[in-house]
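Below is our example:

___
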Amino acid sequence: MLNFMRRSAAAVGGAAAAASLCAATSSEASSKRPRVLITGFHDWRELDGNIWRCRDNPSCRLLLGSQCPSPPIVRDGPLPRALRASVPADFSFVTLPVIWGTAAGLDLGSFDVVIHLGLGVYDRHDTILLENDAYNMRRGPDALAQAPPGHTLECGSAQVQPASSGMSARYSALQASASAPLAGDFVLALAPARSENSYICNETHWRALKAQHAQTGRLSSAYFVHLPYSKDDDHQALAAAVADVIRRIVALEV
């Protein structure tokens, strides 16, 4: 199990390095186009030992497309296709296994905008939820059945990692646009950090917000977008709605 975890950690670091290199090479031509990192998560239940499987989690299905036992070389799911066709930005796409510390290898400072996607709306199919901040807590076993490496994310820090003034202004702008429906009659809602949301998605968002607070590299904004399950397995419709959300986010940077 220890060797498997080491291999997984190395794979995560390699994926992050590849994302950083891809962003660097694809964005040099135009400094006005923001570099945007989009991440999603793999499955974490009934895995049969494969933490890279993408079948049930809509966030990896949007990025990778069809069900797969491991991520393909090209991220060409419905969301990358929609964004490349309609949003003036240079995108990199990374999928992460659901293990504690999974985002530690991401070079967030290489991007202007970081948007993490994850499953998080369970009671309806038409709502996309934007998390305003992150909660200073870890709870629950990961996909390898490993306990978190500590109850808190950062000892001595506040219970909630608040948004910076710049992020607060962005959230306000997105809240003002929430009344405008997304593609497919999806709706956008904003929510504060909650203690019940203390899993790996929250840890990932905490790290990104800390990097944004610290003005790490070129990073100017960081978001976590919670997705519902796609209705009738229609990932095309969900991708169109999420692309609308990302389009609104990127518009705040240009």
